[in-house]
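Illustration 12: Bifunctional chorismate mutase/prephenate dehydratase.
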Amino acid sequence: MTPNELAKAREQIDGLDEQIQSLISQRARVAQNVAHIKQRMGDTGDHYRPSREVEVLRRAMERNSGPLTDESIARLMREIMSACLSLESPLTISYLGPEGTYTQAAVLKHFGDSVKARPTAAIDEIFRDVESGAADYGVVPVENSIGGVVSHTLDALAHTKLRICGEVTLPIHHHLLSKDADLSKITKVYSHAQSFAQCRKWLDARLPKADRETVASNAAAAQLAQDQGAGVAAIASLQAGQLYELNILASNIEDDPSNTTRFLVIGKQDPTPTGEDITSIVLSAHRNQPGALFKLLQPFADAKLDLTRIESRPMKGSPVNDYFFFVDFVGHTSNELVKKALDDVRSNAAFFKILGSYPLAVM
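Figure caption equivalent — predicted structure in token form:
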């Protein structure tokens, strides 16, 4: 490439940047106008609409002709929508803190950077924040592809009045972080219990003699590694390492490279159908009835509804044989076939509750 060709290419980029910026500003003004129209129509509710957001992202990915990946296009569109929404009133999102956790990363992936992220010390506090109005939405981890379900989240879902409004899937890559620069000097490792489970083989092989101490979150582990210094390490994200100024002793130490955590978005609204939706319910069977669980699930088979997850959890304060069953299936409660199946399930259940119908995660 000659200097003239390079200068011409840069001039093209400058011109395109000007057009992009102008179109983004135009989009923001239209978004503000939409808000004003809604106010005149008497719609003073939440300006964030999960179904609408997902539809915009799906269309953006369908239009994508490269060279950027669908994920990159979706991330760019998410940030544009997030910035436009913040012109009305920035959303407050409660998450499991402190700053630097994977749950915070899930918040940013789903809502973009133009939100007020509110860290809490425990999953129960996230539910209380949203129930009380201190936060518009909450993001909670529900299951990991290696470590399994997050029991605190399932227990809270069984008793809350909140609804599941969306889901986020986040690839999880763990890193060993420390103020030390020498792996051989590490004598103690802090981490969340789930992360220890996800990195067990690596730790057994590389740090078999190091003490492992469980803490409330990976970011809390990174804080401890920063505070305690030499000989102490944490399993956490790259973001946490940067935030707490720690060295990376080893990267991607998870036992399974496809390690993924699923998060749920909890709030007070019921998203409208998008055509690609998940419904979550929790139920229990009548005790001492042979085949009770089979009878509960039979309506799903009759309606040809695809079950994507079934988990059991003991009921708190009940005999050991009493369980909640958490069920996810493809479909939305607005569909007549789904309604009939759920009515049939409800009629056979000792306890029945719809947790939400919400859009399938975009990416």
